[in-house]
Batch of 4 targets.
Target 1
Amino acid sequence: MKRVSKLVIYGLVIVGIAISIITTNFFPLSSWATANNQPTQTETTTPKRLNITVNVSEPDDLKVSEGEQIAKGKVIADRERERTRLTAQQKQLQLSLDRLQAASITPPAAPAAVPPTMALPPISYLEQEAAVAKTKSAISSIESEVELKQQEVEYLSGVKNLDPIILEHEQAKLKQLKLNHTAAVREYQLAMGKMQTAKSSRKYQEYQASINTARRVEEMNQARLNYQRQLAEYEQRLTDREFQVTQLIEKLNNVENQIATLAVIKSPYNGTVRRVSWLGQSADGTLTAQVVLMVNK
């Protein structure tokens, strides 16, 4: 029995080896793995029907109509007027930006330094004082003469049997001395008046000089204030221009972005426009349409 079992087992092993050889020859292992583990590549199929949704600014932007035969690459929708309008706006904004950036803003000139005022020259009243002293001395001298002559006349008036001519002569001298005294007093007053006039004139000159100095200081302060005001206006103009440039650049970028979104929709296949449906209008005013394209095989 043991021998029969061994023969059966031996026969089964031989049969298994034979089956393995046949399988390997008729069904290679690599082909089997490819067929069962790797997907096969299929060709892209052309759709029979294609729904194309487009956004337009106005109905005329839709370039196809129902029943129309269109070729591949045919324009279905193009927002020409919107693109033209935005392009014109873009050029105008760019022109305004170029002009604004090219415009020069001149800074204010600093005020010129005010030349110093010349000081009044020193003054002396020696001449006037000398004239006053001279006339005053003359008055004193004449007063002494008058006093002596007055005493002499009084004495002669008391002399008996005096020749009247002598008394009259001395009285004439006394009268003349009094006249000289009056003239000396006038000369003194005139000298005093000249000295007072010189002093008053000097005071007036000093007053005028102080006024001129104050006026020049005021003019200098006013010039500085004007310069500060002009400088502030200059800086404000620079700030305003920078703000305007920023606004124009922002508007220009916005318009350029809008132009970039205005894509031209073209048909990807040859076919027939089966239906055109208007779906509605969005908040920004654009119209939405759907074009049903039956693709030609």
Target 2
Amino acid sequence: MAELLVLFEDEAAGRFVPLSYTRPLYDMRCGVFTLRERVALLSGSEPAGICRAHLAAVHGAGRWPLGLLASGAPLVLVNGRALDLAWLPALRAAPPNTVFVTDAGGVEIMLGARLTPALASAIFAALLEQQGAAALHELRRFARVVDVATTVLTNPWDLIVANGAQIVGDVAVWREHGLWPSAAEQRPTHDGVVLRAPERIHIHPAARLDGPLVLDARDGPIVIDAAHIEPFSVISGPCAIGPGTIVASARIRGETTLGPVCRIGGEVEASIVQGYSNKHHDGFLGHAYLGEWVNIGAMTTNSDLKNTYGTIRVALGGAGQVDSGVLKLGCFLADHVKLGIGVHLNGGAMIGTGSNIFGVHFAPKTIPPFTWGGEVFREYRIDAMVDVTRRVMARRKQTLSAPLEAILREVFVMTRGDRARLATDARPAVSLESGG
């Protein structure tokens, strides 16, 4: 009987807010793919998902996914924090009721498991509440436990730090599963395109490359899906560019992933753009993570290095300001964030879901979800925000479905307390430590 692949979240989901308010960790992009896409590539089938209740209609198998147990097939569970999946074939071949565990920042977590429906049913309630530790505790009583050394996500900056190596690994796996031939094998006839290390460059047949431009893969592979690269662009590897994306005469430096249907200009370095987001104009984006439906105005720039060359602190959900231990770290912009022209962001800035920030030189380092303003900050009324979202999505021929709208409205309610501290006369603080 065929097995069922099921992705799940554990306790770490809360450390990734506001990025994780609107999608589970397994649907966040790192490398070429999200984890869901990576598992689908390796297995040849779309995995199911178990996630937080307000996300389940869009990103999961429903609030009560008991149908996953009904078929009688073994369940292969994969932790949504996983990056490298070299261990997955061994898990799929393991005897039923085998659990793989790994170290995540000094804490042992359940990495994956192959379970009979009977044993899986014993931990379903815990997984529905993201209680991975409780699930693992129960499984230890009945299952065989195997230690695995691998890479998992622990904090939001791990997405950025891991991205370059993940692109390299994803391209290697993708080549084994039907990636388009390299430019050296394909010998594309794009006029005015300089290819450096063409054996490491993969270009979709439907991609449009308008020279003059340079693709430099000497430091890592470049994958360009059915995208449009405009003249005078320079792209350095490792880099992945998704379908429908336009690179507008930009400098795209290494360790960068641009998801589908983005508009990207200016200078971008070591950053991830989930998809359907715009940074079309000049300005610097470095060591940053952008969600979907983000729009960044002209000349808006983030710092990713302190003048003191110290490590950068980031506000984590429920943990306050935490030292990342990372020297170069930019901003985190959650889904549906809008930034006006000329906004400057400090390293480690965290801008919450649905916020619209404008008319300010230095934005505060931490801005709650659904915040409106600049010199003065107020709550962004949810009805107005939803109306804008409908118009924005329609421009990309997408529709704000009822389940997607319900997610936004639920996040608005659950974050109301964060906005209660907004003073109507509050003004942003300027950091004296920002560098370039």
Target 3
Amino acid sequence: MQRGITNTTFFRLLSTISNFLIALLLARFMGPKVKGDATIFITTITFLVFFCSFVGGQALVYLVPRFRIENLIIPAYIWTVLVAGISYILFRQFDVFTWRRSVNICIISTLSSIVNINAAVLLAKQEIRRYNMLNLLPVLITMTGLLGSIFIYQIDSIYGYLYPLYVAYFISVLVSFYFTARYIRISSSIGVFDDIDSALKYGAGYQIFELLQLLNFRLYFFLLYHLQGAGDLGLFSIGVSILEVVWIFGRSVFVIHYSDFSNSDNRVMAVRQTMLYIKIVFLTSVVILAMIALCPSSIYGLVFGSSFAGVKYLVKWLFPGVMMYSIALVIQSIYLSRASYGRLIFAQFVGLVFSVALCYVWIPKYFYSGASAAASVSYIACTLIMLAFFIRDYKIPLSKFLISKADVDFINNVLKSYQRRRKDS
């Protein structure tokens, strides 16, 4: 498990650095407006991929060990195409985007969803390295293509980002099928819709939770976009991206725990591991946030351009929320691995109520600070509710949340084993 977390953290760090460089290139060489357009483009794709994941998605990590893979993924592919087609019709019917942008969003969403489906199969089979490689691949290709668009072809419009995105996901789809070929036998998939009811049942539960979490993460992006425009969103999104670096380790723990716990019925071990990593992830988050807070504002201007010098102050109210939500990332893994979605959905719903109410009150009045504060309150509310459920459901004394000698010994052992692996490599 430790090796899997270390491997996942490393790949997520590479992915974060690559995404950071993408954001840097967009902001520095294409300006805040193109960066804002790219943000709303990717955010829309994220929402579409969410709806594509109602049949399949990350719920496959729970389902694959229990059902035939073909009965899960073939309906998921078909559902993805249907959702993309319906989305295009709705975009044009309500004049949300131009026809060209609508087509681009729907095609890239379809490709991204297929990659996610195949990646979930790899995670369910505990092919952690291939899973991580598949998640990193489109980011690396997009970054490389964006460099070419800027420095070779000198494209300074959104298409300098869009073309590399197409190439990245086409290649990633091919690689994902290559990685999963050993687990998928299309020729023997008679009756592939036999388990569609289970896929819908568990997929819908997971996706309702994901939708509420996604809204908590990104609703204020859309509100800022409509209230202040693409340029201001481009500035703000840079600050949010920097803060979300704090979640790299917590998300890595979530991925590995979700996979391991879904393949095991050892409840005692699951609770013990969850408790241990709640402490480690929280402390790590505090340290990284402190480093971000101490970073001079001039560094942001030097790296991203003078327009971004005050980015740190635009998101200052997000600091406490991001710190607290690192705990929620760990707690989620044990509930999702048992397909216990109700408590997580309730926590996210309460957080969303806070987010929506406070966004409409604070954003028109305080703009960036209002958006940051609303999101922070939402994150804190979600975390406290999940923490309360976790303590009650597993009868955990509050004293268990204090750092013990066993925790310190475990951290030392992890660090020593990591250093040994580095020397061996």
Target 4
Amino acid sequence: MNRKIKNSAPTFKWNRIFLLSVTISFIVVILLIHFRSSDDIAARDKLISHSLVSYDDYFESRQDWFLNHKRIREHFIKGKTFYELLAEYGISAQNIMLLNKAIKPFFDLSKTKVDQAIDIWLNKKSKRVEKISLHISPDKILHIIRNGHDFFPSLVSPSKITIQTITNGEVYNSFYQSAIDRGIPPEVIMEIADIFAWDIDFLVDIRPEDAFQVILNKYYRKGKCIGHGKVLAVRFVNQKRIHESFYFNDSKDRSGYYDKRGKSLRKAFLKSPLRYRRISSYFSLRRFHPILKIYRPHYGVDYAAPSGTPVESIGDGRVIFIGWKGGYGRYIRIRHNHIYETGYGHLSRFAKGLKKGSRVRQGDVIGYVGSSGLSTGPHLDFSVTKRGRLVNPLRIKSPPAFILSKEGRERFNELVLQMEEIWQKYQISGLYYL
């Protein structure tokens, strides 16, 4: 028994040494982790501190820049070029050329419009122009900043608020004036006329007490309306007949306007080849010719319009004749398909580059109103041939260009319901013919 006690004493001693070593090692590891964590925290604090300082410096420098510069708002006027405008502020011809070069990839200065805004930023001390801001559109501003002898462009889109709005109105004299009176911009009015161009002739078909409802997005910045988006939906009552259009982007990424049934409002043919005109002579089997002084058939429609008024092809097709054609003077004939052909006579001149065999698309300008041939004044003689037989152009019923697929109908129907709910909330008298 004594032998056993003597043998266990060294073992117990080594166990104590082992436990002590493990404990010391554990304490060392804990201390290392602690100091490493402290270093990481300190590093992060330094990083955050440096970031905050850099942001402070950035905002302070921006504030200093604005305090040291003066902004002058200019507008392009008729007859004054970009060069002339900047030359007034002492910018050299060489620097204006550099500015023009910086702007060119983003905007064609030859397309500036009257009243288009441009901001000139002057250094208050040196009176030198150090930045210009060209307002390209309501949602795009091109900044060009001077850095030494170079100019650097930057295209930005300032934040704006989009608000869906609806405008109601009734026609009293003309649709254009009635819409202007309701605050609809001229470009939106023309867009509406284009939307219904295949169904309504806005210079011939419009009557007093016609009515309209227009839904579109308007853009606001700092409480001020800065522009508008596309027309989203229009309901137009013309001679008690309702015309509706809804803007929709289908599954094939084709955007356009459709009626309530999902049929495209873009027809195979336009309603007429002119936008500004009046009918001076209708299709007739017996019309008195003002020059020949005899009665004979008139197989077309004469549109009176000022000389030089653009003439558009009413549909896609190919030019099969272009040149002088007897009493029709300068004349163009277009084959649209195996069924329809159209003719355009008494033109003053043809569109540049147009020749026999040229392909044209719907709405392309093919010529200009004139008085060539047997004519008493400037007008367009327009005719339509169907299967080789002359027909009355005003009685053509043009089919839609395409119809929505089944896949797109569900989304389109949801859109129609949304627009109709808005219309119902803002009903006006002229739109009760439902």
